Amino acid sequence: MIIAIDGPAASGKGTLARNLARHFGLPHLDTGLLYRATARAIIDAGRDLTDKDAAISAARGLALTDFNETLLRGREMAEAASIVAAIPEVRAALVELQRAFAHRPGGAVLDGRDIGSVICPEACPKIFVTASAEARAARRALELKSQGEKADYAAVLEEILRRDARDKNRATAPLMAAKDAIVLDTTTLDAEAAFKAALAIVSRCTSRAGVASGHG
Predict the structure, then answer these.
(1) Which is more confident, 20 or 172?
(2) Are 132 and 7 in contact (CB under 8 A)?
(3) Which domain holds residue 141?
(4) With left for phi above 0 and alpha for psi between -120 and 50, is residue 46 left, alpha or beta?
(5) Does residue 193 contact residue 129 with C-beta atoms inside 8 Å?
(6) How many domains are there within the chain?
(7) pLDDT digits over 6-21, tens only?
């Protein structure tokens, strides 16, 4: 079973993906870390984030063991990852890494922005997690404060809107819900309520799959 979770920044997709992975005993990949790790490698090499050659080289040299989440979290890396992710060649370089993870024996849970639409179009279920920009900014501000970072709500909202625009308007794999994705709006849901709603979506998908294969 491959579970694809997509959505914009601070929509709650990461928390949801981790909870689903734990529930079903599946490996989980936060694909955003791939872009953060790529950006981190570029910065550490003293190159500019818009340097296409440096970005492609960093992406191609990436391995799933390269993740030090402490170094990859935070506002700076989120913004840097969004810039790097807009480079088509970087996305292409990371596709196979993500697909290989998804097709592990038994399946996996992946969250990102193009899992259902590009990386794993065969996934079932595909859940597109969304929430209002205001709710997402409030969540991100709380998260940053809990990490000891300064977080001005207005500035965080501006960053959220800027990232949304960049993600939706990039030429390759723009942020969008796959045609057969189920949209889950978490604006008024806490993590537990979102998890229960997602479990219902997974149940419907697995039931349909069982019927289609003649086992339902």
Answers:
(1) 20
(2) no
(3) 2-199
(4) left
(5) no
(6) 1
(7) 999 899 999 999 999 9
